[in-house]
Amino acid sequence: MPYAAPRACSRCGSPTPKGQRCPCRPAWEGSTHPGDDARMQELRRDKLTADPVCEWTSPNGRCRRPADQVDHIVPLAEGGARYDWDNLQSLCTPHHKQKTTQDALRGKKRAR
């Protein structure tokens, strides 16, 4: 049985297989934060208002940079609660990247 004919992208006109996105349209386009709903956006805004300074703690003490990211302490992939205030922390961008890298490395070692 033949496959469906590709459709033309409405933006750039290039042929795109049915059911797939054209590369000119990233999956996150138009989203304020990929995968978030209104409830999470409001929770993020409230968390940054309540805790505007990075909550990262190291042996040298606590970071003093302004927080601009909200992170799940226990990642969702590890069973963390999405909307639980106690599972959120305000972080600056460098510390959020560091934490995300640690989470990703731990995820690679998890059994699938």
UniProtKB/TrEMBL annotation:
Keyword list (alphabetical) reads:
Endonuclease, Hydrolase, Nuclease
Q: Does the keyword Hydrolase apply?
A: yes
The name this protein carries in UniProt is HNH endonuclease
InterPro entries recorded: HNH, HNH_nuc
Parts forming coiled coils: none
Q: Which SMART domains match?
A: HNHc (SM00507)
Provide the residue span(s) of the region labelled Disordered: 1-39, 93-112
Under the heading Pfam families, the entry gives: HNH
Gene3D superfamilies in the record, alphabetically? Answer: 1.10.30.50
Annotated GO molecular function terms are: endonuclease activity; nucleic acid binding; zinc ion binding
Keyword Nuclease recorded: yes
* Species for this entry: Mycobacterium palustre
- Upper lineage: Bacteria, Bacillati, Actinomycetota, Actinomycetes, Mycobacteriales
What residues does the HNH nuclease domain cover?
Answer: 42-97
